[in-house]
Structure formats: structure tokens, C-alpha cells
Amino acid sequence: MKSHVWRPLYVVIALAVALLVFRFFYVPNDFGSGKRGFMYSYHRQSNETEWKNQPAKYSVSGRERMHEYCSECHGEIVKVRSEKLHGIIPCEDCHGPAMKHPDNPEKLTIDRSRGLCLRCHTDLPYTTSERHRIPGIDPKTHNTGTECVKCHNPHNPSLEGMK
Amino acid sequence: MERREFLQKCILVIAGASVPLSALTLIDPKKVFAENPDIQWAFLVDTNKCVGCGFCVKACKTENDIPFDANVSRTWVERYVYTKDDKRYVDSPQAALNGFTDSRIDLGRGEYKEIDKANVGKAFFVPKLCNHCSSPACTQVCPVGATYKTDDGVVLVDRTWCIGCGYCIMACPYGARFFHPVAKVADKCTFCYHRLSKGLDSACVNACPFKARRMGNIHDKNDPITQIIMNERVGVLKDEFGTKPQAFYIGLAQEVR
């Protein structure tokens, strides 16, 4: 065959080889399909471990393990909370994430804002929703500009427990 | 050929032809194992219990470093309001990060719709998140292999590998993916994979005061979540898309998709 056929062909072959060499070094060794096959799990395996090693921020104050972590030190305060009312709310919802507390942060930043209470206690006219069972106020008329915790005790919110 | 011999051969041919083709295919142990690994995470949402407080959204954004002021979220809560004159409204202001503190419906672009108290028929809240589908459309379309499904059923994004093309964001029928404004990659709910592997509940499950959100191993028959999914009436979102979602909903209405 004549050289005008071979020459461009060499270029193409060289490019293909260059691409394969580049790919060999660039694509990580653990790249491959998982048990779910190429369509759903073609990925870099070590990324799973990377996700697993992310640090957690919230501890276990959720409903499943009710205040387990907090009551180790703050047992008295945790007990004060009436289980019927605010006892269902995880401590960290208002007190902030506490995975490394008391080391870091030493003192948690408590959210005392009106907005926090209004999440549940804004009066919405939805009689068919669970929301209806929670006492609600109109935020535009009910002691505007004042923090709710000035009068209401968030740990024991019954009206008899008003400050 | 004798008549006896002919009949014998006929019976043999009929018997052979009646064996279905599928009976002859070899079983791939890898495939069988993938369908039945020990752990398969599933989510259960009880819409009857949700009051729209948005603590889940706040906890998720805090736990996973999603900017509060950006209008993106890995999980969100929708409010459905049906009026007595047969109109339906849905909204989710800022993904319900601060809950629902306004009785007006957020129509977007700064417009709000006031609904007369007496006109409200029924209303409810629906928390949403990534469905971690068994056949996820989002992982199929990824051109670089940056998003994938783990063996225990969680769909993840490889942040070092994602090129931010946005195919997966378009492919998800549930709108569960978004572009992370800080990491500059596609982002989505991970079922708090870092918490699950440490034996903790996901941030949203941990934060929910009403047990509207729960998570369990659907391959463990004795898991309380599996028991509910097996024995009670649960639904999934957009079943017709064939993505086989792994987030199950109690009390689903047909308007919720």
C-alpha cells in the first residue's frame, strides 16, 4: 500500500495508544461495576468509604433512642420534660447538634427564636391534619416582637407552668 | 418405525417443548446475591403524622452542610391544600426549612394566595426525599460513572468524579437532585450514609418529633419498618416510571407524586 494511506493510519494508531495510556494512569484502579452491574453501579469503590467516613454532627436524641445521650449528664432536666407534651421533641432540635459536646462546642447555641416555636404553633386552619391537635397562635397578633420563652417554659409548656 | 416407538418419541418431543426457556438459563450467583444482600435500606414516611414543622429539613441541612440561604435541599416538606370549591394548592416555601408559618400559599415569584378559612376542605403535609430507587434513572445517565447504587441500596454521588453536567438532575423523576452551590457537583440525599454506617439514625429521622419519618432494613423480616411495609397499605411515588422507589408512604393521596 502507498504511504499516503499508512501515514494517517499511524497517526490514528498513535492517538488511540496515547488515549489508552492516559486512561490507564488517570482512571483509579478500583473503578468498576459493583454487584448491581454496569448500568447502576459503575463507580470508584473507595468513594463508598469516603462517604462512610464523613463526620456526624447530631448525636442520638431522636425519638428512637429518646434523649439517651443527653440524660447521661443532664438527667434531671431531661426528666422534667413532660413526656406528653414537648418530651417527644429531640433535644438537639432546639439545642443544636451535639455529637462532640461537651468537648466541642463546650456550650451549645440554643435557638430561642420565635420562628422555632412557630414551626408547630402557628395556627393553620387544617382540621384534617395532625397539625390541628397542636395549640396554635396567630404570629401577627400574639405578643409580637417578644420571644416565646419569655413567658412559656419550653421544657414544661403547660399553661400552669407559665413563668 | 413402529407405532409404539412413534408415540414414545412424540411424548418426548412434547415434554421437551413444554420446558420454558427460562428453566434452561444458568443462574448467575452474583446476580442473585445482588438481589438479596443482607442489608437493603428503605424509608418509610407516615404522612398522617407530619405536621410540617420542618425540623427534618433543618437537621438535614445542618448535618450535610447544605447552605441555608440557597433554595436547594436534600429533603423537603410539601403542603397540600384542597379547597371546598375543588381547587388544589401545593407549596413548599424554602423546602419548609422554617416550617409553615403562614396560612397563605406560596405561589412563587413573591406571590401569595390567601385561602379563606371556611373554604379549606382538607390539608396535609408530605415529607419528600430521594427514593433510592432499585432501578434509578439518575445513575443510568451519568456519563462518567460518578453516581451509583451501593450494594446496600443507597444512591451516592462521587464528588471527586462528578463533572457537574446535570444529566442526573434532569433524569430524576422526583426532582430529588440539585446542583450543590458550594461543592459545584450534583448532590442528593445519601440516607445519611455516614450515620447509618456508624449505627445512627439519619439526621431527619433523628430530628422528627412525630415519627413521621423512619428507616429500616427491608431485607430483615423482623425489622419493624419491614413489618409495616409488608402488612400495611403503603404506596410509592410515580410507580409507573418503573424506577422501583424504596421510599414508602403511608396515607398517600393521588395528587402526591
- Total beta-strand segments of chain A: 2
Helical content class of chain B: 10-25%
Q: Would you tell me which CATH topology of the largest domain in chain B applies?
A: Alpha-Beta Plaits
Over all CA atoms, what is the radius of gyration of chain A?
A: 30 Å
Distance between the termini of chain B: 67 Å
As a percent range, the share of strand residues of chain B is 15-25%
How would a textbook summarize the main sheet of chain B?
4 strands, mixed
Q: Helical stretch count of chain A?
A: 6
Please state the average pLDDT score of chain A: 87
CA-to-CA gap between the ends of chain A? 100 Å
Q: Give the total of domains of chain A.
A: 2
Sequence stretches where pLDDT stays below 50 over 5 or more residues of chain A: none
Q: How many strands of chain B? A: 13
Main-sheet strand order of chain A equals: 1-2
- Gross CATH architecture of the largest domain in chain B: 2-Layer Sandwich
Q: How is the largest sheet of chain B built, in terms of strand order?
A: 11-1-13-12
Q: Tell me the overall shape of chain B.
A: elongated
Largest interface: A-B, 49 and 62 residues
Average pLDDT figure of chain B: 91
Largest sheet of chain A: 2 strands, antiparallel
List strands and helices in order, with pairings.
The complex is a heterodimer of chains A (163) and B (257).
Chain A: H1 3-26, E1 31-33, H2 37-41, E2 42-44, H3 46-52, H4 71-80, H5 91-95, H6 114-121
Antiparallel strand pairs in A: 1-2
Chain B: H1 3-17, H2 29-35, E1 41-46, H3 55-63, E2 76-83, E3 88-91, E4 105-108, E5 111-113, E6 120-128, H4 137-141, E7 147-149, E8 155-157, H5 167-171, E9 178-179, E10 186-187, H6 193-196, H7 203-207, E11 213-217, H8 224-231, E12 234-235, E13 247-250
Parallel strand pairs in B: 1-13
Antiparallel strand pairs in B: 1-11, 2-3, 2-6, 4-5, 7-8, 9-10, 12-13
